[in-house]
Amino acid sequence: MMEKMIFGRYVPADSIIHKMDPRSKLMIIFLFVCIIFLANNVVTYALIGIYTFFMLGLSKVPVRFLYGGLKPVLWLVLFTLVLQLFFTKEGALLFEWGPVKIYEEGVRMGIFISLRFFFLILMTSLLTLTTTPIEITDGLETLLHPLKKVRFPVHEMALMMSISLRFIPTLMQETDKIMKAQIARGVEFASGPFKERIKAVIPLLIPLFVSSFKRAEELAIAMEARGYRGGEGRTKYRQLSWQRADSFQIGLLILLTILLYLLRS
Amino acid sequence: MDISLQHVEYRYQANTPFESLAIEDVSIEIPTGIYMAIIGHTGSGKSTVLQHLNALLQPSKGTVKIGEHEIKGGQKNKNLKKVRQRVGIVFQFPEHQLFEETVEKDIIFGPLNFGVSEIEAKKRARIALKQVGLGEEILEKSPFDLSGGQMRRVAIAGVLAMEPDVLVLDEPTAGLDPRGRKEVMDMFYALHKDRNLSTILVTHSMEDAARYADQIVIMQQGKVVKKGTPEEIFSAPTELVQMGLDVPEVVRFQLKLEEKMGMKLEKIHLTIDELSSAVTDQLSRGVRS
Ligand SMILES: Nc1ncnc2c1ncn2[C@@H]1O[C@H](COP(=O)(O)OP(=O)(O)OP(=O)(O)O)[C@@H](O)[C@H]1O
Ligand SMILES: [Mg+2]
Predict the structure, then answer these.
(1) For the residues B148-160, what does the mean pLDDT come to?
(2) Domain check: are A40 and A105 in the same one?
(3) Which position among A16, A73, A265, B258 has the lowest Cβ density within 10 Å, counted as fewest Cβ atoms?
(4) Which residue of A has its CA nearest to B84?
């Protein structure tokens, strides 16, 4: 039931992207999210597209899997496109059929905005697909370390994040298990009238909440029993190491930024 | 209601990089009224097989026949609710499925879903509660205020109240104390006899398999490797040990005894009483000759 989900999932593979330092990957994603807004014409969008698919190719994530997992999101992208098509009323009138009027600017905006959306989703999925949750939090913690000076609880936040990421698969398994148990007791999650389906969620959510609270308590006790007392003076087993590939990737993105800047209209 | 699995294969997370083959070419016949035990090492696919018995999982390949209902691999199936009403499953750690405010509401939840009237469902709840060895005073309590063992029994009562024709049990006694275990297993057996239920039990306890089952199926790495009566299965103990399984204590005792005393009994005995009378027989005969 939840098997096709790809968000927050790690797909192990032997690729350059997998081997990169999580810090550089996080920096790249952050920068990418900013510079994608520089694109505003065909050339710049094409550049972003080439870059995204280049990264995708490097990552060796199976395209079929990516497609299967992103299918629901693609509907959202399509919806954005349609929305823009119908509701932008600028430029020359291209097409008219009764109350439906489609303008040139609508087509342009529709395609551009949905492409932007699509590339963003691809790149961010790429981050989680090629980086283990532990790496992501380690990377974030190091990158955000300077914020400690302004009393921002960096370590606590990273810990919270890694715990929640760690328990996503557990929660999914648990959901699947309880769903099956309730289906066996006659609940129908996937069919029936809307009102019934909403009601069907209760026998799923309550056991999930109960077990999550229990698990949280057990985890807290287990951590204390093993002597956890915050991030002060804590050393790391996994050391992050910055490689030449990381510098290269950062350089590539800077190059892309410059190109976008020069080529945008 | 007869159930039969024919060359069933199941893959978890099919068509993803995480795809894994859980069971392969599994064929099992479950005629009405049989008590069948499925044993096997952890991860051998027992729970996966069980979930096919009421169409919670649908085979990637092969056919599952549940009564008149036929479920073929790779097809969409409707009207599974009817099937599910007749096949009750007690999952591993069934207490995790409790959610209602009171024990009574939780027990009648299943029957109500299957269209039983509220009055009838409440009647069944009282009967089921008694069957699992709990008193009626518990009906108005919250299931979350009960002990682990009591929660387990309430969850089992919730399945019994559906009055299924086939009872599927996935390690129903894991984590119970020894007395509770025996009580629950005896209760299932009595029910099996009284109502002529088909019972399919997954267990790690060879004693339970030997004591209750008419037939035993052994699974290993997703395949059925052996089927037979308890006598047949446990008379080849070395084979079992190779598969990482154990033999019942009685059988182990008999084998040791035969080895130490240099004698050989005619067959493998599965209960202490049988074994002791066989041994006395043998000994008295030995004295006479
Ligand atoms: N939801 C799932 N997703 C992916 N793989 C699974 C899932 N459930 C089970 N498997 C895999 O399928 C195989 C069979 O699992 P199954 O739960 O049927 O074993 P089992 O015999 O019931 O084991 P146990 O005695 O521990 O309960 C295992 O290798 C397991 O890793
Ligand atoms: Mg199991």
Answers:
(1) 94
(2) yes
(3) A265
(4) A184
